[in-house]
Design brief:
alpha/beta; 7-stranded parallel beta sheet
């Protein structure tokens, strides 16, 4: 059974990805600061879910975390860098601490975690890495300038790392969800959600399950020749 690390796995996108990857036959090493009732219920029904609590902003411990996971479960086939925070606010009024926290968890942490997982993949000469970006990385959105910057950085990271890792048979891709029904869009009122849906070509919002399906595809053998790409899942909002 192939091992896939999913960060931010206790809710939202990460939980949907965990469910889908388990259904597709992977063992998911679910990482989050704390579990949730939904993740606990999934773990109770499937031996393919292994939850490990970790605060990914604690960057100095990421190497030890990866070594522990390898020791317990063996080689790492895949990594999904999903964990992140979506703090909103006008840049001029955003406290420095919030800006630094966004960059630390959304950029520095996934890059450093990937560094340690990539070492394992290089010795195996195979693997899959998927970074979770966002449509705001390319389109922008009012009040999300810092968040957008962090998600745009993951696109550049994806494309360059794909070049580095390709010779070792490791693919590196990203998914860019639109506004979907997760905790990160919970601050939007119903009227705003309806406006977002109306702007999409399909006149609806994509779901967490749609994003999970794209991640599962990129993890599989059918995507073995896809690397350095960004798959947009937004019901045509950016079409």
């Amino acid at each position: 059974m192939r091992n896939v690390i999913v960060t931010g796995a206790s809710r939202g996108l990460g939980l949907a990805m965990t469910r889908r990857l388990v259904a597709d036959g992977y063992r998911v090493l679910a990482i989050a600061r704390s579990s949730s009732d939904a993740l606990n219920a999934l773990a109770e029904t499937s031996s393919a879910v292994e939850f490990r609590p970790y605060d990914l902003s604690q960057i100095d411990g990421l190497g030890a975390l990866v070594r522990q996971l390898k020791s317990e479960f063996g080689a790492i086939w895949g990594l999904v860098n999903n964990a992140g925070i979506g703090t909103s606010g006008m840049l001029a009024n955003m406290p420095q601490e919030q800006i630094e926290a966004l960059i630390r968890l959304n950029v520095t942490s996934p890059i450093m975690l990937t560094k340690f997982v990539a070492r394992s993949m290089l010795t195996q000469n195979q693997g899959r890495i998927v970074n979770v970006s966002s449509i705001v990385a390319s389109n922008g959105y009012n009040g999300l300038s810092v968040y957008s910057a962090t998600k745009a950085s993951l696109v550049g990271f994806t494309k360059s790392l794909a070049r580095e890792m390709g010779r070792m048979n490791v693919t590196v891709n990203a998914v860019a969800p639109g506004f979907i029904d997760t905790d990160l869009t919970g601050e939007m009122d119903e009227a705003e959600r309806e406006r977002v849906a109306r702007r999409a070509a399909l006149k609806r919002m994509a779901t967490a399950e749609d994003v999970a399906a794209a991640v599962a595809y990129l993890m599989g053998e059918d995507a073995r020749n896809i690397t350095g790409t960004v798959i947009t899942i937004d019901a045509g909002a950016t079409a």
